[in-house]
Amino acid sequence: MTSAETLTSPVLALNDGTTIPQLGYGVWQVEDAVAERVVGEAFGVGYRHIDTAAAYGNEAGVGRAIASSGLAREDLYITTKLWNADQGRGRVAPAFEDSLEKLGLEYVDLYLIHWLLPQRGLYLETWEELIKLKESGRVRSIGVSNFTVEALEEIERATGVVPVINQVETHPYFQQAQLRTVEAAKGILHESWSPLGQGKDLLGDPALAAIADKHGVSVAQAVIAWHLALGNIVIPKSVTPERIAQNWASLGVTLDAEDLAAIEALDKGAAGRIGPDPATADHG
Ligand code: A2P
Question: N or C: which end of the chain has fewer CB within 10 A?
Answer without folding.
Answer: C
